[in-house]
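Changelog note: in this version the structure field was regenerated for every chain. One regenerated record is shown below for reference.
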Amino acid sequence: MKPKINDTVQLTQALPLEHLSVGTIGVVVAAFSEPEEAYEIEFTDERGETLAQVALRPTQFVVVA
């Protein structure tokens, strides 16, 4: 399933530099097709404050319902 803007996603790979672990939930905020398929994902805390916003390849996360 191809991710879309506002889809909820879950990390399948830890991102230690961003202090994000496998299973962390985020939201797709942008999609890129060049130079390769990638998605900007925003991760927030329970108050809605941004923890990290990173570009990821589709192999690094899954879309959750």
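Spot check on this record: The two ends are 11 Å apart (CA to CA). The longest strand covers residues 25-32.
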